[in-house]
Amino acid sequence: MTSPREVAVVAFAQTDHVRATDGLSEVEMLLPVLRDVLGQTGMAAGEIDFTCSGSSDYLAGRAFSFTMALDGVGAWPPISESHVEMDGAWALYEAWVKILTGEAETALVYSFGKSSAGDLPEVLTRQLDPYYVAPLWPDSVSLAALQARALIDAGDTDERALAGIAARSRESARDNSHAQLRGSEPVDTLLRGDHLAQPLHTHDVAPVTDGAAAVVLAAGDTARRLSDNPAWIRGMDHRIEAHSLGVRDLTDSPSTRLAAERAGLFDEAAGPPDTAELHAPFTSQEVVLRKALRLGDGDHTAVNPSGGALAANPVMAAGLIRIGEAAARISAGASRRAVAHATSGPCLQQNLVAVLEATPAGAATGTAAGTAAAADGSEGDPE
Amino acid sequence: MNGTVSKEPVAVVGIGQTRHVAARRDVSIAGLVREAAVRALEDAGLTWADIDAVVIGKAPDFFEGVMMPELYLADALGAVGKPMLRVHTAGSVGGSTALVASNLVSARVHRTVLTLAFEKQSESNAMWGLSLPVPFQQPLLAGAGGFFAPHVRAYMHRTAAPDHIGSLVAFKDRRNALKNPYAHLHEEDITLEKVRASPMLWDPIRYSETCPSSDGACAMVLTDREGAGRAPHPPAWVHGGAMRSEPTLFAGKDAVSPRAGSDCAADVYRQAGITDPRREIDAVEMYVPFSWYEPMWLENLGFAEEGEGWKLTESGATELDGDLPVNPSGGVLSTNPIGASGMLRFAEAALQVRGQAGDHQVEGARKALGHAYGGGSQFFSMWLVGAEPPAS
Amino acid sequence: MNPAPAQEALHAPLVVEFPFTRSLGPVQSAFLTGLRERTVLGVRAGDGRVLVPPAEYDPVTAEEIRDLAEVGQTGTVTTWSWNPAPRRGQPLARPFAWVLVRLDGADSALLHALDAPGPDAVRTGMRVRIRWAAERKGEITDIACFEPHEGPEGGAEAGADGPGERAQPRAHDGQFPGEAVTGITAPARLDYVYTPGRAQTRYLNALAGHHTLGERCPECRKVYVPPRGACPTCGVATDEQVEVGPSGTVTSFCIVNIKAKNLDIEVPYVYGHIALDGAGLALHGRIAGLPYDQVRMGLRVEPVWAEGGRYPDHYRPTGEPDADYDTYKELL
User: Fold this and answer.
1) Tell me, what's the pLDDT at B3?
2) Where is this region: Disordered (chain C) (predicted)?
3) d(CA C311, CA C303)
C-alpha cells in the first residue's frame, strides 16, 4: 500500500561482503554494522522504539540462531523487538507497519546470513514441497535454470543478453566498496566459459556470500532531524504466488507486478523511477522483474547501480540491502525516485516492492506526505 | 507517541484450533494448518476471498524439516496473490505472530488478516530439534526441564514457597483440560495424589508438572471496526499488545522474574488502562510449560507482590472458579504444539471474553490476558482483550 | 589490561540429519500409493484443470480439492535445465536434465529428472515417459526418472508396463490393492562448517590449558564467561581478557533423575549453575564429589578435569564454607 504516514530510511550500513568471514560468529559479523547504523543517527539501541530482524536457522544450521545475534543490539533495558524467518526486507516491512500504527517513531532493522556455513543450493532444497519435490533434492541453481530456459524459449532473452546483465552488474559494482565481485570480463569472454546448469553459466549466478546489513527507519519530523536527506518510503507491498513451479508461468512475476502496483510504482503522475535495486540472484530473474516492474530496456532507470545480488548475495540480507542501497542513492542526491525489490522462495515465488523518494524541492516540512490511501481501497473510518 | 496517528481498533472475529494430539498421522502439514484456518474462517463467517493477508508463525524450522514452510503453505492458506509474513520469536512466537497481524489492521494496512501458528512435532522429535549438537559447545546436561529446573529452585529459595505448589498447578490445569475438547492431555482419572506420586524428573520438577509434545495449530481472524460489525458472533477487542526482549544470558539477568516480562505486562496494562490487574482482569492464559511457572509469572505480571505468587495459587484463586482463573483451557501443561502454544494463549483469552469457551468458560469474563514467552525466558509477547471495544 | 590476542578461529563440521516422518493426508496418500502401483493420479481443480502432482488445495481458489483423475505416463517437457554434476540425493548419479513435464491429460507440470545422454538430446517440447523404479514403496522416487519417448500423445502402446497413456484424464477413486501409503520417511542430511567465532575461540583455546578466560565489557565492566563476542546488554565488543575461577559458587541446581539419550551419566546426578569467582554470570555443569542430596545453593566448588575433555568433567566441593546468599543472588 502507499504510505499514510511519512516514514523514511535515515541510515543504512552493511558489511564488506565476502565469500566466507574470517572465523566470525554471526554476532561478530553483525556488531560493527549495528554500531555503524546507530552511529549515523547518533542514537543508542535503547532510544530506538522498535527493533526487527530477519534471518534463517536453516542457513546457519542451528535452531534459534537469531537469539544470539540479539547480543549485538544491547537489548537492555528490554526492548520492543521481533524477528521474521525471512529476508530482512520483510523485517523492514514489519517495522514500517509498526511505525504506521503510531506506536513507534523509530525502528532498527537488521539481517544477516552466513551462506558459507552450508552448501547453499542444497540448503535451499529444504524450502521445497516436502512430499513431492524436496525428496528429489533439486538445487536452487537448477531450478533457476529451468526458469531461464523458459524465458529463452519464450523469446524474452538469450544467453548473450544474460551475460550482458552479469557484466553490467559487476561493472557497476566497481564503485561499491562493499561488493564481493567487482568488475567483469567482457560478454564474449564470459560466453566462452562453461555452463553451470545449462542455460546458466557461472556468471549468471550470484556468488555465495557472508554478510549483514542494517537500516534505521524514522517517521516524519524525527526522520528530518536524524537525516539531511531522508529517503521517504512512498509505498511498500509484498505478495506470494503458488508454491509449485509446475502451476506457475515462470516467465512472469504477477506477485511483483501486484506488489509494485500497490506500492504506487505505476502512479503516472510520479513518473518512472530513475533507480531500481532488484533482488535477482540470477541474471534471468532480472529479465522477469524488469517486465513485471515495467522498467523496459531503456536508459531512464539505472538498474542495480550497486551491482545487485550478482555482486554480493548474503542470503537473508540481500533483499534488505536493495532497500538500503536505493535509499542511500536518494540520500546521496543521485536519485529522486527509486524502486527496491526483495525476493524469497524458489524462482521468485514471493516478492516485495518498496518505492522510495527524495523530499521534493521546496517541500521540506511535511507536504511531501504520500496520499493517505486507506487500506485495500477502503473508505477508512476517521475518528 | 504521535498525536496525529489514530489506530484502528482491532477485533478478533474468528478463532479455530485443531484437536491437539501427540501425532496427527491423518493429515499433511498443510492439512493440519488448514483445519485451524477453516474453523477460524467459519467462526468469522468469512471465506478465503475476504482475507487480505496471512501472518504465520512457528518455532524452529528444524522441527518439521522444512525451511521457511510458509512458502509451501501459501496455497493451503489461501495466500496466493496476497501478502504473507512469517514470524519466529522462539516460544513466544504464537503471541508475536498475532501481534504482527494485529498491527496490520491497527495501522490500516489491511482490513482483515488471517493469523496462524502451528507445530507438527511428530514429523521429527522435539528434543532433537531443540538440542542439535553444536561443535565446541558444552552439551546441556539435563534436557529441557533441566534447563528451567534451577530457576524454579531459585524461585522456591527466594520466596520460601512450599514444595507442593507445583503439583497444585498441574492438578488444576489437567482438570481444566478435561473441560476443553481440543486439549491434548485428557487425564480423566487425574488426582492430586497421582501428580505428587509422579516421578521426580528434574528435582524440583515432577513428570506430571511438565508439558507434552503436541501436533496442533491455532488460527484467528482479526479485523477492523467495520469488519467486527459484520461478524456473526461477538468479537474480542484488542485493548493492548506488546513484545519485549532481553538478551539470552547476561550479567544481572533475573531468570525468575525477567524484566522483559514485567516491562511487557506494564506496557500492555498502560495501553489498556489497567491499573490493578488482579482486580480488573477476569481470566489469564499464561505460558506455563512447567507448573511452577504459574506462581512465578503471577508475580512477574503484577498479579501478586514479589514472593506472594505461590500464595495466590495455594489459595485457589487461580482455579476455574477462583477470582483470577489461570489457564482455564488447561494451558501449555495440557497442550504444547510449541510454535502454536503462544497463539493458543492469545486465542483462549479471546474465547473467554467472547463467552465462547464452552465448559471452561469463566463466568462473566470481560477482560482477559494472553501471555507467551520463549528462549531463555527472554522473549515475551502479551495482549489484553476485552468484550467491549477499547475507549478511543 | 590484557587485550585479546588474534587467533585462528576454530572450525568444525556440523551435521544436521534426521529421518523426518511425514503423514500425507488423503490426496497425497492416493498419489503416492498410485505411484507404487504404477498409476499417476492428478486432481481436478475448481477451473477444471487437472493438476499433477495433485495439490491438496486449489492454487487459485484455495478450496480443498479431492476429485482424483488418472493421467498418462507419457508427457511433454515444458522446460528443462542440464545438471552436469549431480548432488547427493538427486534422482540420478550421472549427469541428467531437470525437467518440468506435463503428463498427457494433465494441465500442470511435474518436476523430475530426465535421463538423457547430454544437453543436446534435450529440448522443450520433447516427448518423455516415466521410467518406474524397480522397487516402489509409495514415494516420489518411485518414478526413477523420465526417459525420451518416441510416440504421439495418447498413443496406444501401453504394453505390459502399465496402463499406458491417455490424453483424457479418467476419474479415479484413489483406491488401490494393498495397503494405502499414509506416510513417508524423508531422511535429510545437511553438512555445515561451524565456527564459534573469535571470542569463543580465545576462550576455548585457554580452556585447553585449564584456564577460564572471560572477557570484560568496556562499558559496564561485567565479565562474560564464556565470552560471545559482544556484551549483550551494551551491544559492544568485549576484548579485554580476564581469568576467572577456578573456584566458584553453586547458584542453583536441579537433580536429574531421567537419563538423557545422548549422555552416559548415571542418574541421579546434579546439574547446576556455577558462578566462577570473578565472573559476571553463571555457567552450567555437573556437580559431584558429594551425595547428590547434599548439593545446595551457595556450595563452593572447583572444576575436575578428565583426560581429553574440552570442558571440566564436573565440579566438586572445595571444602570452603558455603557462600552467603547475598554474595551470589545477583548471579542467579
Assistant:
1) 44
2) 148-178
3) 9
* C58, HSE (Cβ side, Cα atoms, 13 Å): 17
For chain C, the domains span 25-181, 197-331
Q: Quote the CA–CA distance of B356 and B181 in Å, as a whole number.
A: 13
**Domain A7-118+207-359 superfamily per CATH:** Thiolase/Chalcone synthase (3.40.47.10)
Whether residue B243 lies inside any domain: the answer is: no
Residues 63-122 of C with CB under 8 A from A: 78-84, 87-91, 98, 100, 102, 108-113, 119
Domain residues for the domain of B120 are: 11-124+212-230
> At B32, which CATH number?
3.40.47.10
Sort out which chain A residues have CB atoms less than 8 A from B79's CB and list them: 240
| CA trace torsion C103, C105, C109, C112 (10° rounding) | -20
Q: Is residue B44 part of a domain?
A: yes
What pLDDT shows up at residue C153?
57
Residue A73: per-residue pLDDT: 96
**Domain ranges within chain A, ordered by starting residue:** 7-118+207-359
Nearest of A249, A307, A254, A244 to residue A281 by alpha carbon: A307
Task: Choose among C83, C84, C111: nearest Cβ to A246.
Answer: C111
Q: Give the residue from B304, B254, B211 showing the smallest Cα distance to C252.
A: B254
In a domain, residue B174? The reply is no
List Cα–Cα distances, C68 to A192, B29, B210, C26, C56, in angstroms. Answer: 48, 20, 44, 10, 11
Q: List helix spans (H) across C97-253.
A: 198-208
**Is C24 in contact with B32 (CB distance < 8 Å)?**
no
Q: What does the mean pLDDT of chain B come to? A: 95
SS3 B96: helix
Q: Cα(B13)–Cα(B34) distance, rounded to whole angstroms?
A: 18
What count of other Cβ atoms lies within 10 Å of the Cβ of residue C152? 13
| Per-residue model confidence as pLDDT tens digits over A251-261 | 999 999 999 99
Q: What contacts B245, CB < 8 A, 6 or more positions away?
A: A51, A70, A75, A78, A79, A80, A81, B89, B260, B378, B379, B380
Neighbors of chain C by Cβ distance (3+ pairs < 8 Å): A, B
Chains contacting B (3+ CB pairs below 8 angstroms): A, C
Overall domain count for chain B: 1
pLDDT band at B392 (very low <50, low <70, confident <90, very high): low
Q: Would you call B64 an interface residue with chain A, using a CB distance cutoff of 8 Å?
A: yes
**Chain C residues near residue B124 by CB distance under 8 angstroms:** 18, 20-21
Query: What burial letters (b/e) apply to C90-127, b meaning 16+ CB within 10 Å?
Result: bbeeeebbbbbbbbbbbbbbbbbbbbbeebeebebebb
pTM for the full model?
0.96
CA atoms within 13 A on the CB side of C147: 7
Min Cα–Cα distance to chain A from B56, Å = 10
At C1 the pLDDT is: 56
